[in-house]
Structure formats: C-alpha cells, structure tokens
Amino acid sequence: MEQTAVGGRPDALSTDHDGTGTPDPYGDRALLTTAMTRGYNAVSDGDRSRLRRYLEAVAETRSTPLHTAVAFNAVYFGYDLGGDGYGGSPLCLDDFPVIAFGSRARALPVGAMVCVATGSEPLYAEIVYKEGAHRETGASGDVPGWVSGAPAGAEGPGRPGGGAETRRRELLVPDFHAFGPALSLSPAQLHRLRMRQRWINADGHVVLDACYPSAATALRDDLSVYADHLLTVARAQLLSPFVPVSLAELVGGTREDALRAGLLGLLDTVSGVLKSSSSLRTWRHYAMTRASLSTGLRDTGPLGGDDLKSLAAAIEQAAVPVRRRYGLTSAVTVYTAVGPRLRAVPGTTELLKGVGYATAVCRVNTALADVVQRDSEQGMFANGSRITLDDAFEGGGVWRSHHPGDDEAPGDPLVPAGRGWAATMSGKPEPEVELAPVDLPLADDAVIGPVELLRADAEKIVWRLPLRLAHLIGGLLPLHPAVSCELRRSYGRRTAVQLQLRHEKAGSAQYEAVQNVTAELDDDSGRLTGVGWPGDFFPGLMLELRWTRGDTAIHMTTTRLEQPQLVGDRVIGHCFDPCVLTREDAPGSGRRDDTAAGLGPRQLVMRTVRRCGLLTLDGHALLDRAALPSAAYGRRPGRSQAAALESAVVQLLEERLLEPDLGSRDAWDQPHFPARAGEPTIHLIAYRPARPRVIRPWGSTEPDSGTALLGLQFVPGHLRRLLPGRSPSQTQRAAFREHCRRLGKADGWELPEGYTFVTEHTRCR
After folding, report:
1. Is the domain of 556 the same as that of 505?
2. Hey, what's the torsion of the CAs at 373, 375, 376, 381, to 10 degrees?
3. What are the helix and strand counts (H, E) for the chain?
4. Cβ within 8 Å of residue 406, ≥6 positions away
5. What is the Cα–Cα distance from 308 to 342, expressed in whole angstroms?
C-alpha cells in the first residue's frame, strides 16, 4: 500500500554542500547519524554544528519556545523552514490521537501530534507547550500552598488521592499552523472557534482532564514520557520509512530495547545541541532565541521590560510581613503562579492567545530566574525574603516567597522543591532521599523487566518477558494475566501444563526440551512452578512465549543476536534486557557459585555500582563515588575497608571496567545523571556493560580498527529531496522497497513524490 505525505511537496531548501547555509533534514547529507543514538557526547563536532544550525533556524522561524521534543520532531520528521512546516512530512493524519476541549483523555506529552475534534473539519496541531491548570488557582495568580508541588490526583491538603487511574487538569497549547497553509485554518475560522469555546477556549488552547496510570508516571521527565509516546501511541509514524532517516535504520533493527535506547540517545543529542547554542537560551526543556528575549525586554508595551521588572518586584515583596505594634512581625509565605498572573496584566489578552502564551510564560520564568541568580544569595534577598521556584509545572511555574528567609536551609532556588505540598503532609518533615544501600529492594517489574504483550487474538496469545534471578533460583515462570485468567476459568486454580522450550545454543544444534510443570493460578496473576532452567540461562535473557487458546501447552523460545556481545565477563549470544542483566547478574548473585559475603574488594565495588547506581534504560549504572563505601557495607566502613575499596576503584578505572563521569545532586540530596544545570557537580563511577556495535565496511567491530584511522563513518539509508523536475531511478525505487521490507513493511512501499532513496554507505568525516 502506498502512503503519501500530509501535504504538498515543499521546495527544496538550501543545503550545506560547501559547509555553508542551513542544512535540510531531506538534504544531501542526513542530519541524524548513528552516533547520535548514543547521546550528545558521542557526536562529532561537525555533525553537532550541522544539527545546531538547523535547530537554530527552526527556533528563529517558529514563533514559540522550542521544546526538546518539538525540536526532535522537526529534525526527525522534516520540518520545512520555507513555510510548509510538516506539510511535506511522512506523518499520517489518521494516526493522530483525538482530543476535545473539557473532556477526559490519555495524558499527552509536549511534541505529540494531535487532532482537535470540532463540529466540522478536524483541526490538526502539534502540542508545543503544556502546564497544570488547577481549578483552585486564583485569577491573579495566587495559589493555595498545598497545590504547589502536589502530585497528580491530589484531592486536597495532605490528601494525595489514589485509585486505578490518576487525573490531572492540564492546559495544552497547540500550534495549529505546524502543518503548513494547506492544513491551517484562516484567522477568521480560528476566531469563530475561539468565540464558541466548545472545542478550544477563548485563547485557542485545550483544557482537559489528563489521565495517568499512576501518580508516579506523572512525575517522569518530559523526554522519557515523549519516548514512551513515540514507541506506543505514535509508533507507526516513528517507524515510517518515509522519514528523512528511520530510527530502525539508525540502530540497525526493530528490537524494542534498541529502539528505546536509540530514541533516548537522539533526544539527548537534540537537548545537548540546544543547550550548547550561543544564540539560544533555555528554560528547562524550552529554548528561545536570545534575540527574541532582548526584543521583549526592550518592548515598552504589555509584557515588555517594564512589566517584567514590576512582576519580579511584586514577587520579591509579596512575603514582606506587615509591621505590627511593638515591632513584632508575622511570617508570611506566598505562592504565585506565573500564567494566571500574566492574565491579570492589562492589555495582554491578545498577546496570550495561541502560542503567544507559551512565549510569555517562558520569557517571564527566564527573567525571574535571572533576577534570583543576579540579585540574591541562593534566593535570599536583601529585604529578608527568600524567593524560590517551588513547582515548575503547575500554572506555568509557581514561585514561592517566604519571610523571614533565614529560618530555612539554603539550597538551589531554581530546583523545584514542592515545599507547599510537603508542608501539608501531616506536619512531618520531608524525608531525605539517599542512594539505596545494598540490602534495599531493587526496582520492581514496572520499572525493570516488564511483560510485553505481542499478540492477542482469537487464536493465540504471545508475550515476551526477561528472565529474572528469582525465576532462575525458584524454578518459576510468570504467566501473562490473560493466559492465567483463561486457564483458571477452564482448569481451576492448579493444573498440569506442558512447557516446550526451543533454545539455539552457541556453536551447536538447536536445543529442544519438554517439561511437565504446574500452573498456579490466582485471581489476577499466575505462574508456572517446577521449571528446570538450562545451565546457560542467565538473568535478563529475553523469553518469547506462545499459548494457543484451549491448549495446555506453552511454547517458549529464545532469539539469537546477529552478533554476540561481551557484557562484563559474559559473552551473550541471545536477546537480553540490559537493565535486568546489570542489576541481577552482578557479582554475589549466587548464580555463579559466589555469594555477597565472600566477595573481594573489586567484586564488591562492581556489585555495589551495578545494584545501587542510577540505572539508565540501556543498562548503564552510575554511582556517586563518595557514597560507595557506605553503600557497599550498609554502614560507614573502617579505614582499611575504605582504603581497599578506593584501591579497587582505581584499578577498575585503569582497566576501563568502570569509567568516570559527572552528575549532579539536587537540594534534596538526590543524584542525577546527566548533570542538571545549576546543581552541585558530583563525581560518578559508571558501569557500562556493552558498547554499541559500530558497522564497518569490511565487518570489523573493533573501535580502534583501521576504519577509524581512515576517518570513515557509516551512513544509514535515508530519504533525500530531489531538485524540481528530477525523478528517482528504478534502482533507487527497488532499494527503497527492500529498505521498507527490512523495517517490517512486508508489502514494500513506494517512494513519495519528489524524493529519492540514498542507500547505506560509508563516507569520510
């Protein structure tokens, strides 16, 4: 089946053939490279520079702050700088989720492509900004203390809420002009929709009740949430063969773990490029041109420099107490939400409509941050008030003014502390957050090693999960809830089941075995007991299971990797979950005749880093070097023990089994990686189990091979715009059909009009 772009083909943009001009995602050289899937630090200066020039041009062209997710969309889906936006992109409009004003809907991240329901023609848009829109926020920006920092679903002071579904009222700012003139409404049409306030409000925004699976999911970082959105709701557009260069091509396959790690790497690259630009300023994940900020400060009209100074002064003075008789003063705490406060400024009605609202909010927050950093000592002003950012999401940002400020411990004033909500929690002090000691439980299955449903129809159910250490030790295997439910309905809570295993061992014929096991089936879960696991099975090994409805046999298979990988001291030839492998195959796990009690200093260091470090989605673990001794022993060790650990760390770093890195620590003592701006830097020791395989022309996988010396770089297959009047050859059409088949498009798709396909190749850097 042939798929067409959402709009007409835009004219070809100027590309940097000779190193000048603005690069184009569909130009002669793809803007996204394989190295970018490994994050910003892995990208060469030349490729960073090309991507930076394009994103700077996007930020200048679009009249809204450029969120990292929106910047990713521009380079990945091909945003045209000539005025057509995504008009010539591969996006399929029918795949966009539908949202409606005042309704209840699944929470959507910034960057999501949506269809806004209307009474006539659908309205397509890209979400470029969002914030909390709590009903108790006052018209002048005054916020009840408990709202600031409250978790999603909070019902009142000290009442965090609960239940199977968590809802939060959110305001979404859609860009209705992102898809070019052909799919944009005229100003008159938009005005009519605003006046009706049935599908969008009077400002052209969408306010709805966003639903989250839990309150914890609402606290996740924007980029992680957007990655999940692309891999689930927007998966079809992410893996489209019509994008400038496909993620599947960049990571060399469609395995879920590779796609997720590669996508997060691309987002990290885009974020790093935006932050490194000398012509851009960033407020959290939003980037604005310095020229636009300067123009706004020089403006003498509404929301110009004078209004920003007045707003900053008002927040600074908000908590200064009223002087009473005998010189006594009363302590005061005031919470001010930026968004509602801006609406109270005279003459701002038109300026806050559409994407102008996002521009104003980000500009004000940037100005307030500059005032706090310039005129205060960690938020402490000369008048005795302490000004801090307390909530970065609700109402466009909630700033806290407290007097007297010297009765509180100082911290980074720009790290949201959520003190408003914390103060309502039964009067208890907020608990300190520390790195987990060795004996604390690891992350649960919702974070590490989730069960993934691959197929569920009238014939069979197919699911996939990683093998866990508890499964190996206990001879267990969890069942998918749907399988457990049907088996229990047919055979009761306990029944005999046949487990058929097919496993291809390295260098030998395929291994097949049949085991008679027992299915123990509860109301909402089930498992197989009495499983005899082969000796070469390890924690993290991916298992694919199939059950035919009405049968009492379950088929289990493993999948071999195209190229074996060396992970730590283990050579792995089958698909695996890197997070489970890092955590549960650490020294002392008991699977390889070792116990935690008998570990030497080197093994103890490796175990502590892998089990207690901050865990990334690709299985890297990073631990604060200063916290290693207490994390290793669960207490402060003796001098000789600490010296032995430090010596082991030095040896492991020299042998490159561990690597040094930098992170940061926030006001609540929580470590972060990568380091966050404005937070104190800490030294980390990192366990990086496996390096991505770099494809070389003659098949070499050694990073220091002759290919690197020759300066060659692998370029994956990608689309390129053609000059007007040109057409692709039959060879390139056939190559693109084969490319689509490799991406899982069995029927093979045709090239879109005006494009050709560049096959994978190598080039000099």
Report:
1. yes
2. -140
3. 20, 31
4. 380, 384, 386
5. 10
Contacts of 19 (CB under 8 A, 6+ apart): none
Q: So what's the pLDDT on residue 397?
A: 95
Residue with tokens 């549960």: 584
| Ranges under pLDDT 70 in the chain | 1-20, 138-140, 162-164, 321-330, 425-450, 506-509, 523-524, 569, 590-598, 634, 668, 690-714, 742, 744-748, 761-765
591 and 471 share one domain: no
Examine the domain organization and report whether 337 and 316 are in the same domain: yes
DSSP 326: G
Does some domain include residue 298?
yes
**What residues make up the domain containing 355?**
289-422
Domain membership of residue 432 (yes or no) is no
Asked if the structure places residue 161 within a domain, the reply is no
What pLDDT score was predicted for residue 1? 36
Among 217, 710, 624, 587, CA closest to 433? 624
User: Rounded to an integer, what distance in angstroms lies between the CA atom of residue 283 and that of residue 73?
Assistant: 19
98-99/113-116 β-pairing: parallel
Torsion (CA) 75, 78, 82, 85 in degrees, nearest 10: -100
Same domain, 418 and 529: no
Please give the C-alpha separations between residue 473 and each of 135, 236, 534, 589, 623, in angstroms, as whole numbers: 51, 39, 12, 10, 27
Tell me the residue ranges of DSSP E strands in 549-658: 553-557, 560-567, 570-574, 614-615, 621-624
- Distance, CA of 663 to CA of 237 (rounded, Å): 34
| Cβ atoms of residues 176 and 190 within 8 Å | yes
Q: Supply the mean pLDDT for the chain.
A: 81
Per-residue tokens: 603: 């093994």
289 near 278, Cβ under 8 Å? no
Q: Comparing C-alpha atoms, which of 188, 209, 201, 136 is closest to residue 349?
A: 201
Distance CA 32, CA 693 (A): 17
Is the full-model pTM beyond 0.85?
no
Cα–Cα dist 512/497, whole Å: 17
Question: Is 392 part of a structural domain of the chain?
Answer: yes
Helix ranges restricted to H, 26-148 = 45-61, 68-77
Q: How far apart are CA 422 and CA 750, in angstroms?
A: 57
The C-alpha atoms of residue 569 and residue 278 are separated, in whole angstroms, by 43
Bridge partners (DSSP) of residue 712 are 764
Q: How far apart are CA 627 and CA 270, in angstroms?
A: 31
Decide: helix, strand or coil at residue 442.
Answer: coil
What is the total count of domains within the chain? 4
Among 503, 484, 500, CA closest to 492:
484
DSSP tag of 749: P
Other beta carbons within 10 Å of 636: 9
CA distances from 704 to 226, 647, 660, 690 (A): 35, 29, 21, 16
Dihedral sign, CA of 628, 632, 633, 637?
A: negative
pLDDT (tens digit per residue) in 515-541: 999 999 876 678 899 999 888 888 889
The predicted pLDDT at position 139 comes to 63
Residue 81 CA to residue 61 CA, distance in Å, equals 7
CATH number for the domain harbouring residue 570:
2.40.330
First to last CA, the chain: 37
At a CB cut-off of 8 Å and minimum separation 6, what does 447 contact?
none
What long-range pairs does 91-99 form, CB within 8 A, spacing at least 24? 91/5, 91/6, 91/179, 91/237, 91/240, 92/3, 92/6, 92/236, 92/237, 92/240, 93/6, 93/122, 93/124, 93/183, 95/234, 95/236, 95/237, 96/124, 97/233, 98/122, 99/172, 99/206, 99/208
Q: Read off the tokens for 374.
A: 């310039």
Residues 6+ apart with CB under 8 A from 568: 585, 606, 657, 689
3-class DSSP state of 34: helix
Q: Which CA distances in Å does 534 have to 504, 515, 540, 567? A: 12, 12, 14, 20
Q: In sequence order, what are the residues at sequence separation of 6 or more whose Cβ sits closer than 8 angstroms to the Cβ of residue 327?
A: none
The span from the CA of 519 to the CA of 552, in Å, is 10
Distance (Å, rounded) from C-alpha 313 to C-alpha 754?
A: 55
